[in-house]
Design brief:
single chain, alpha/beta, eight-stranded mixed beta sheet, 19 helices, 36 strands, 21% helix, globular, Peptidase_S8/S53_dom_sf, protease, glycoprotein, serine protease
């Protein structure tokens, strides 16, 4: 799903409360697969083959011939095939029945078959808050050569955030394209200028834009182009790399200079998500292939689903191929928090990003007729026309006595229009767009009482605000005890709050894909983020909403992901030759600690801590890895030649003959997790690590260890000496822990300190509940 924050707008694509049936569960079809479905009913499948073929024409011919071996004609095979992946992968997507998919899986050329599923989609102040002000040191020439590829809902090319003055032509490595497309301007002007004048234009921000919609079903209101109708993709891409836009705001709220982490970096948009229909696996995979082939440096993807199998997930497979080409994928952790084990996109080769809050929120004051005042959460741009209005509960506005229970939620079918008109309504939060109903019925405003923890501000299309249940009880008590209760909801104001903290909606560990790998990796701002938007839809997406803006405020790990992607691009601009693992390590080990006292899930909520961009550009030491390290890790997780095939492109990997990864987790990861074995009184594990000197040539690092009660942590050696750049040093960490209460997590820490640098590695010890 697109990873945006919790809201009561279930009809609004980019909010969290999506019915569970919409979440993607990719099905891996094994040779023993048996379907209970109609064997003749056809659906889209992705078929993985062996090593990459020589050219596109040869691949298409091979794919069509293989498909026609299902006793169908070449013509029908051509009609059924919707994608031929030949630039990076060797795969194709086609319409098959379950029976045909099973037959395809039995062919010796085929490595794996996925059924296509549809996923749903999961700033002014935020960059200053994480320590990346306008005055931060930059390598502008190198920054202009960094390309961020965004897989999302498209982009608004004429947004001020993508103005391209003074950036110069695209980097020489760029192999992408940008249309032309109907109803889409922007980077077309560069290519049109190039063709007409046979010269090079001197400036381009948005250097690539493509769209992918293999099923051919275009939702109402959508356009067959990279144009963003939803607004999500415009928001994420401008958060990562938008240029400076002065006086940006949402109707005067959150006013300031909007910008991305790397305003001089280039943006390439790959539209794989569509309003109302979500994000198809086969389109996501095509987007990855295009981005890898085009030459992006960083991929940002704010999409996810509850997939635990690394070899049968389109994002997992696409990002693995990206890391093999030196491209880091940054992905959102998900919005199913605070549920334990809900984190998504948890592969070791992905930078998994949780959402944190900054020191700003948006509240509206509620003034009651008895003189009491309360603060509600939300964004209401409406100044009241009167000092107060009659205050009525949904129960008291019911059409009939039988309607009272559902009327408490202010559902339209159960309210008496006459009892709503002119009044401020108090409603239990239980559905989408309650204020829309109240506005339509002539109401003066709404106070929505929520049982959920309120830490992000949703936008309302009428005077409204949200309060927690304790405040709600006070307001209900006033309504029930007063002859003529009254209230008014004031226009929203900006409020300063303590921060950082992890968003309640941000998905938590432990990692459902591996008990040996800590996820999420990092936290970044994802609450109430102002960034560019589209004018193609209203701010809420609700019927009757007349609010439109070039900028809007959104919440979710969808918003935290491009913050981290922007930081990765910032680091890349200083170190163009660094591997994806080195960039990940720099971001994680340089993170600013987040207090466990206000985040009881500790590292399962925030990983290494809050992103710290300038320190990430100069980390001192990095934990580096290549793609074979990930294969060793997967072998240690129980994967084999068959299940590894979609990732590595062949069945040639034999885990029994490959050199096993060293240490308990078989990874050179910048964090450590030990999961206790419940049947034993104590658990001991040895973790082996190797760091690379990327700081001063001559330096000495000494280890500082913090062990929680009941845990012993030893490091050997305790000192590391370096005499030249890129020099490597190895050490081991031994963790021994006594049995703990099931479900408990305790936090340790290893810090390597030199005169100039401090390299932090969280150590998590966890006792499973089961």
């Amino acid at each position: 799903m697109l990873h945006m924050g919790r809201s009561n707008r279930s009809s609004h694509l980019h909010h969290l409360l999506v019915p569970a049936i919409l979440l993607l569960h990719v099905l891996w079809i094994s040779p023993g697969y048996a379907s209970v479905e109609d064997k003749h009913a056809k659906d889209f499948y992705i078929i993985y083959l062996g090593d990459q073929l020589g050219n596109g024409d040869e691949a298409i011919k091979t794919h069509v011939n293989l498909l026609s071996s299902l006793d169908i004609s070449l013509e029908e095979a051509q009609e059924r095939m919707v994608y031929s992946y030949a630039k990076v992968f060797n795969a194709f997507a086609a319409k098959l029945s379950p029976h045909e998919a099973k037959k395809m899986m039995e062919m010796k050329e085929v490595l794996g078959v996925f059924r296509n599923r549809y996923r749903q989609l999961h700033t002014t102040k935020s960059w200053d808050f994480v320590g990346l002000p306008l005055t931060a040191k930059r390598h502008l020439k190198a920054e202009r050569d960094v390309i961020i590829g965004v897989l999302d809902t498209g982009i608004t090319p004429d947004s001020e955030s993508f103005e391209d003055h003074g950036l110069g032509p695209p980097p020489a490595k760029w192999k992408g394209s940008c249309g032309p497309f109907k109803n889409f301007t922007g980077c077309n002007k560069y290519f049109n200028y190039l063709i007409l004048s046979n010269t090079t234009m001197n400036s381009l921000k948005l250097i690539g834009a493509k769209f992918f919609k293999a099923d051919g079903n275009l939702p109402n209101g959508e356009v067959r182009s990279p144009l963003d109708i939803d607004g999500h993709g415009t928001h994420t891409s401008s958060t990562a790399a938008g240029v400076l836009v002065a006086n940006a705001s949402l109707y005067g709220i959150a006013s300031g200079t909007a910008r991305g982490a790397v305003p001089s970096a280039r943006v390439a948009m790959y539209k794989v998500c569509w309003a109302k229909s979500g994000c198809a696996d086969m389109d996501i995979l095509a987007g990855f292939e295009a981005a890898i082939h085009d030459g992006v440096d960083i991929i940002s993807i704010s999409i996810g689903g509850p997939i635990a199998d690394y070899s049968s997930d389109s994002i997992s497979v696409g990002s693995f191929h990206a890391v093999r080409k030196g491209i880091l994928t940054v992905a959102s952790a998900g919005n199913d928090g605070p549920s334990s084990g809900s984190v998504t996109n948890h592969e070791p080769w992905i930078l998994t990003v949780a959402a944190s809050g900054i020191d700003r929120t948006f509240k509206s004051q509620i003034d009651l007729g008895n003189g009491k005042s309360f603060s509600g959460m939300g964004i209401s741009m409406f100044k009241p026309k009167a000092k107060s209005y009659p205050l009525v509960s949904g129960v008291d506005a019911a059409k009939t006595k039988d309607d009272q229970y559902l009327a408490r939620y202010c559902f339209s079918d159960y309210l008496d229009r006459k009892k709503v008109k002119g009044n401020v309504m108090v409603c239990k939060m239980g559905g989408a767009g309650v204020e829309s109903t109240i506005k339509r019925y002539g109401g003066a405003g709404a106070i929505l009482v929520s049982d959920q923890y309120l830490d992000n501000a949703q936008i309302f299309m009428a005077p409204a605000t949200s309060v927690n249940s304790s405040i709600g009880d006070v307001i209900y008590g006033y309504v029930n005890s007063s002859r003529s209760p009254s209230a008014v909801v004031q226009k929203t104001r900006e409020v300063t709050i303590p921060a950082p903290f992890v968003a309640s909606f941000s998905s938590r560990g432990p990692n459902p894909g591996s008990i040996r790998l800590l996820k999420p990796d990092i936290a970044a701002p994802g609450i109430d983020i102002l960034a560019a938007f589209t004018l193609k839809r209203s701010l809420t997406g609700l019927d009757g909403d007349t609010q439109f803006s070039k900028f809007t405020i959104l919440s979710g790990t969808s918003m935290s992901c491009p913050h981290a992607a922007g930081v990765a691009a910032y680091v890349k601009s200083f170190h163009p030759d660094w591997s994806p693992a080195a960039i990940k390590s720099a971001i994680i080990t340089s993170a600013k600690p987040i207090s466990r006292r206000v985040n009881k899930d500790a590292e399962f909520a925030y990983g290494g801590g809050q992103v710290n961009p300038r320190r990430a550009a100069s980390p001192g030491l990095v934990y580096d890895m290549d793609d074979i390290s990930y294969v060793q890790f997967l072998c240690g997780e129980g994967y084999n030649a068959t299940t590894l095939a979609p990732l590595v492109g062949s069945r040639s990997i034999n885990c029994s003959s490959i050199v096993p990864g060293i240490g308990h987790d078989s990874l050179n990861y910048p964090t450590i997790q030990l999961t206790l074995r419940t049947a034993k009184a104590s658990t001991m594990a040895v973790f082996r690590r190797r760091v690379t000197n990327v700081g001063p040539p001559s330096s000495v690092y000494n280890a500082t260890v913090r062990a929680p009660k009941g845990v012993e942590i030893t490091v050997e050696p305790m000192s590391l000496s370096f005499t030249k750049p890129s020099q490597k040093r190895s050490f081991k960490v031994v963790v021994k822990a006594k049995q703990m209460t099931p479900g408990k997590i305790v936090s340790g820490l290893l810090v390597w300190k030199s005169q100039r640098h401090s390299v932090r590695s969280p150590i998590v010890i966890y006792s499973p509940s089961d």
